[in-house]
Specification:
15 helices, 5-stranded mixed beta barrel, alpha/beta
């Protein structure tokens, strides 16, 4: 037994060394992983959620850093604030790289870039023009303009001060909409490095110290054997992709209008099914967007009332009063769909197209009702009056006529011989009052 134990010790030692080396290799490999996400397009609530989940995942998986490849024309201020807060509180270094060539960090992109632990730009890129505008791209007027501009200037100033970047330029980007190239940004200390690709970027910031929650941390990406770090791309989840689409103010509006139109067609033609199914789905997606967009409850109420008026016009014809009242309510609801402080607006061309569609529907309903009212009844007692028939027997105080394929009792003020073409003058109970047709009448 003793001999076996002695021989087992080297094996146990080798096994322990092997486990140690495997763990060390795994740890080293983990340290060399860099996560990356891409923000292409407008900054939205979906973008903010994407950044938040990416930072959390990168930290949980022990990534050395998170790279945000940025190319944006701007976006919502509230979503930008959320992204900035996430970056400033990130437990790992966050690197914003304005890339590839031809990209820009415009408007909201300036705030995101300035908030990064390391800000970088690729050759042929620009940054700036951070002056606040409305959701439709128009200038903000009046006191709201001053309020939003002052807030944005103070916000970007605090970010630049925290990261040690050019405060003066940051404020000018907001107040004067200045924009600069990557080389100018490097000279003005707006960004830290210019790099064409990720490998060059990581090599140039190797060993740089960054501030992580008040602690100075030295970042390193290369392993002991000098191998380059592994880049792991984190795509948007399906939920985030859907939210990114529907949270566009104009898309959300179109979904809402499509939902209303679908339900209107279903109520007008019960049993069609397809318009109702599509309408419900569109409305649910619009409600999803309403959870992340600043929607005015009064405007939504106007849209609902407008829809109700249009439906009522189909069942209670009011010669256009309800229909065009509904059009007016839908127009007002569309114009004021988003709260004033959000600076979001629905594109006016979309509103015009929507109103024209609903106006055409209302006009069609009114014309149909008027045409039906002018049309002579074709059934019932009213449908018999003015109808033409033929006498089967002599008709005077009594007799028989055939009209609409039916045989009726008939009377006449003057005697009418059998086989004569007659016209119904009035209906008296179950008897018809008739008179002979004039020559040439059928």
């Amino acid at each position: 037994m003793r001999r076996i134990a002695v021989r087992s010790m080297p094996a146990a030692g080798l096994l322990g060394c092997g486990l140690f080396l495997v763990c060390a290799a795994a740890a080293g490999a983990q340290d060399r992983v860099v996560h990356r996400i891409a923000l292409d397009g407008a900054i939205s609530p979906a973008t903010a959620d994407y950044v938040d989940t990416a930072v959390a995942r990168a930290a949980a998986e022990g990534a050395a850093a998170l790279i945000i490849r940025l190319d944006t024309p701007g976006g919502l201020l509230n979503s930008t604030k959320t992204i900035v807060k996430t970056i400033l509180a990130a437990p790992i270094p966050v690197i914003v790289h304005v890339a590839p060539s031809g990209s820009s960090a415009t408007s909201a992109g300036v705030f995101v870039t300035m908030a990064a632990h390391v800000a970088a730009m690729a050759p042929g890129t620009t940054i700036g023009a951070a002056h606040p505008v409305s959701g439709g791209g128009e200038d903000i007027a009046g006191d709201m303009r001053t309020k939003v501009e002052n807030y944005a200037a103070s916000f970007v100033e605090s970010i630049a001060e925290k990261r040690g970047r050019n405060v003066e330029w940051a404020v000018k980007a907001v107040r004067e909409s200045v924009s600069i190239t990557e080389s100018e940004a490097l000279d003005l200390k707006v960004v830290d490095v210019v790099a064409n690709d990720v490998a060059t970027l990581l090599s140039r910031i190797e060993g740089r110290e960054v501030d992580l929650d008040g602690n100075r941390v030295r970042i390193s990406f290369t392993s002991a054997d000098g191998r380059a770090p592994e880049i792991v791309d984190i795509p948007m989840t399906f939920r985030q992709r859907v939210l990114s689409i529907v949270s566009d103010p104009n898309i959300a509006y179109l979904l809402m209008m499509a939902g209303i139109l679908g339900l209107y067609m279903e109520f007008s033609n019960p049993g069609a099914i397809f318009p109702g199914v599509v309408g419900v789905i569109c409305l649910l997606l619009a409600l999803l967007a309403a959870q992340v967009l600043p929607v005015s409850s009064i405007a939504v109420l106007l849209l609902v009332v407008g829809f109700a008026f249009l439906v009522a016009e189909s069942f209670l014809p009011s010669f256009g009063i309800l229909g065009f009242g509904g059009i007016a309510a839908i127009t007002l609801g569309s114009l004021f769909l988003y709260t004033p402080d959000s600076n979001l607006f629905v594109d006016r061309s979309l509103i015009a197209a929507t109103v024209l569609v609903f106006a055409a529907i209302a006009a069609a309903i009114v014309l149909t009702v008027l045409r039906d009212r002018r049309r002579r009844p074709s059934t019932g007692a009213e449908g018999l009056i003015g109808g033409h028939g033929v006498t089967i027997s002599a008709v005077h105080r009594a007799g028989k006529v055939r009209i609409h394929g039916e045989i009726w009792n008939a009377t006449s003020t003057n005697p009418i011989e059998p086989g004569r073409s007659v016209r119904v003058v009035r209906v008296e109970g179950l008897s018809l009052m008739v008179e002979p047709n004039q020559e040439g009448e059928q």
